Amino acid sequence: MASFLIPSWVRLAARIFIVVTVIFLLAPLVVVVGVSFSESQFIAFPPDGLSLRWYQTVLSDTVYTSAFWTSIRIALLVTVSATVLGGAAAIALHRRMLPGSAFLATFFLSPLVLPTIIYAIGMLMFWSAVFGPVSFVTLWIGHTVIAIPYVVRTTLAVLSESDPFLEEAARTMGAGRIQRLLYVVIPQGLPGLGAGAFFAFNISFDEAVLSLFLRKPGLTTLPVQIYGQLEFSPDPSVAAVSTIMIALTVVLILVIDRMLGLQRFAST
Amino acid sequence: MSDRTENLLLAAPGLLLLALAFFLPIGQMLVLSVDGPEGATLAHFSRFLGDGFYLGVLWRTVRLSLIITVICALIGFPLAYIMARVGPRARLWLIILVILPLMTSVVVRTFGWVVLLSRNGLIPELLRDMGLAGRTFALMQTETAIVIGMVHVLLPFMALSILGVISRIDTRLEEAGRTMGCSFLQTIRTIVLPLSLPGVVAGSLLVFTLSASSFVTPNLLGGPRLQVLAASIYKSVTQTLDWPFAAAQAVVLFAGILLVLIPYVRLTASDNG
């Protein structure tokens, strides 16, 4: 709306509203970061003193480091599997040559709409009945299923804005199927595939519900470890781990913004 | 190889994975929910629906989810409207500020609220200092704490759902309304709100389902006394190890969520296609 049409009291109210909302959205994150630099034994905000001792504790505590490596390993595997499977599916969906394309799109997006807890309990029961005790592979497969819709969405969004005649042109000029995929379609969808890959990493790394249902000794991811500590007796070391996770999220958001543009992601 | 075969080959691995590792497990859960020592039984369901405790859990889940959805809509609508109408730089910043918590692990965010709401935390202390609360005032382990934490977790979903719709509204409609004598609030009420209703409804359905199926935040902020349905499922799976009963509870949740999800999928299908 042209700016002279907005009364000044509305501008003022909007400013106040935005400030309050932003404080609300950021408060818990700021508090976690603050606590992590505390010198005291106890969780307190504002923190008492300033030190890096809890980071030292975290980096030398095998409970945290092993959970960290478990999380990283799963997240990296999920990034690869979800991007390959979801990306290939998105290319097929984009071409709209399969029967029931609309149904297929819903099929691929369904893990996104179904609450994770329902999937988590099904996966636990199914795996136990068919394969026995859950393992690293169970979690890998489970996270891949949850992450695929994000890759499908980002890749489809990018492909739908690309020039469809480029592939036709390549075909008439004699490019084979593989060549067309490698040199035309995949480069066209690359920003979407890239953003989807980073989403997949983020989802797997942060995921708590499936990981909690499939938890067992030796299969503890970082969010599960933090959850366990919170149920028991948290000390500022939990804040230090959480801060590391927040920092990683910030990096991922910046990367996704570079690849795809957050504006676009927000409206798709 | 025909084009069709090529596309089928591309989609097949993903299709197979989702069929075997997503739909099959959900089917397994449905089967287990009617599993008894002597064949199929509805005993787990009658146990759930016949027990006042579990009905209380169900009622708390529905009630809290409704409250959380309404609060998210009340904050999310103005937030999305402002996001859509500010300049591009400010919009990018607001989007980052909304997405940052969205992409941070729920466990981490809830931890932040545990610190803020605990007995000696910033918020109860502030309320006590301002004389708004008594000495024994506590927020942790209350439904209020659950609502605060859940609104924080789910507000980004609501704001982004509404933003998607509002940013497609032609601003000239509002200008026309204003120049023809509507007050600012009248333009919002008679032009923006009706046009953004699909976004508000889609966001509300999404927030409701996510809220009804959360247990991490309710467990950590509400404690074991204030159980919600998802927390009760988690308890049945990990503590009492009563899997058929857990499956029955999950089916109850699933049925309730499907009622909400079907209109949601209808509403958003046009966006995804």
From TrEMBL, chain A:
The chain crosses the membrane at residues 12-37, 67-91, 103-127, 133-152, 181-205, 237-256. It is found in: Cell inner membrane; Cell membrane. One of its GO terms (cellular component) is plasma membrane. It comes from the Bacteria. Keywords: Cell inner membrane, Cell membrane, Membrane, Transmembrane, Transmembrane helix, Transport. One of its GO terms (biological process) is transmembrane transport. Residues 68-256 form the ABC transmembrane type-1 domain. Belongs to the binding-protein-dependent transport system permease family. This is ABC transporter permease. InterPro entries: MetI-like, MetI-like_sf. Its main location: membrane.
TrEMBL record, chain B:
It is found in: Cell membrane. It comes from the Bacteria. PANTHER family: ABC TRANSPORTER PERMEASE PROTEIN (PTHR42929:SF5), INNER MEMBRANE ABC TRANSPORTER PERMEASE PROTEIN YDCU-RELATED-RELATED (PTHR42929). This is ABC transporter permease. The keyword Membrane applies. The chain crosses the membrane at residues 57-80, 92-116, 145-166, 187-210, 243-265. Belongs to the binding-protein-dependent transport system permease family. CysTW subfamily. Keywords: Cell membrane, Membrane, Transmembrane, Transmembrane helix, Transport. Residues 58-264 form the ABC transmembrane type-1 domain. One of its GO terms (biological process) is transmembrane transport. GO terms for cellular component: plasma membrane. It holds the Pfam family BPD_transp_1. Its main location: membrane. CDD domains: TM_PBP2 (cd06261). InterPro entries: MetI-like (IPR000515), MetI-like_sf (IPR035906). It is a multi-pass membrane protein. SUPFAM superfamilies: MetI-like.
